[in-house]
Amino acid sequence: MTTVSNAEYRGVWVFIEQVAGEPAPVSWELLGAGRQLADALGVELAGVLLGQGVAGLVSEAWAYGADRVYLVEDPVLGPYRTAPYARALVELVQRYRPEILLLGATSLGRDLSGAVATALGTGLTADCTGLNIDPATRLLEQTRPVFGGNVMATILCQRHRPQMATVRPRVMPLPPRQEGRQGELVRVGIALKEEEALATVLKVIEEKGKAIYLDRAEIIVAGGRGLGSRENLRLLEELAGVLGGTLGASRAAVEAGWLPPEYQVGQTGITVRPKVYFAIGISGAIQHLVGMQNSEVIVAINKDPEAPIFKVATYGIIGDFQEVVPALTEEFRRQLA
Ligand code: FAD
Hints:
This protein is α/β, with parallel strands linked by helices. The protein has helices at 26-41, 58-63, 82-96, 107-120, 233-243, 251-255, 286-292, 309-312, 321-336, and strands at 12-16, 18-19, 22-23, 45-51, 68-73, 100-104, 124-128, 130-134, 139-146, 151-155, 163-167, 184-187, 219-223, 246-249, 276-280, 297-302, 315-318.
């Protein structure tokens, strides 16, 4: 086996995730983060797009900052399966040798990144909240919370390449879309066989009911233990209804069974970055804050003036939510009529 020195690896790659041709927005967020890393290193930023009939996304990747897109289209890559996706990505890495490879910390990204890092024998830092280049060493500084969010650790992958990291949706800002921006397209053929896929997709069953996409919501009305009961959620639903917002919850509210787990915001829930986040009866524990503190405007409603949520709030209202929330709903209804 020939050994390749780390210096032979160049460039920053972002995996462009798509399901049935629908791109995961975290891919564009990562192109924004990847641009800064590539500029700091003085190298190119590339997107990697795997699938079938997905070439339409190439111009989107250019528009969000990719200088080049590696495209592998193959019927075996139609529905996502770990084995062929991992095989294609591993082969691309071995052929073109990027020094950094970023993926979204979605269910698909978490599955694929682990398989690829294992096959390549390199390191992987999951759920990073910060990515930087150390100019002295050119190493990727991968920062993420550890020990329940009380400590931030910066992790380096010194000996192996590529340096791999995943980032949750909405942790990085969406870069501006540059309409008409052009880049290079590299179509790559990889000999994939259906019988090596290890799994067959028999049927895709769409989830019934209203799917919630908290990480894409522009207005979130979140409730915590301070609501006291599931019945009181009605007041938050009314406020969300008037504003066209989505409900959210602290872990305490989820554990109380007032809302299902997919509504949980925070370290072990979803990271959100809405235009407006209402935190109602939520104390502001660090594990909750890490999931929502990047919201553009935070409105905190709490009867305890010392509640830590007020430290991150744009507007703080000290009071009982049973009085404050209906008054806000009424006023918004009047203003928006
Ligand atoms: P509390 O801390 O009990 O706060 C309730 C608040 O409501 C208080 O501030 C109180 O003053 C206020 N209140 C009470 N009555 C009223 C009223 N009538 N009007 C107005 N305000 C009122 N938590 C998360 O949210 N998300 C996570 O992802 C998460 N992950 C975790 C991971 C780990 C490893 C650990 C250890 C913990 C995690 N937690 C998470 C839990 C977290 O530490 C807190 O316990 C939790 O966020 C508290 O929820 P809360 O703010 O709703 O409840």
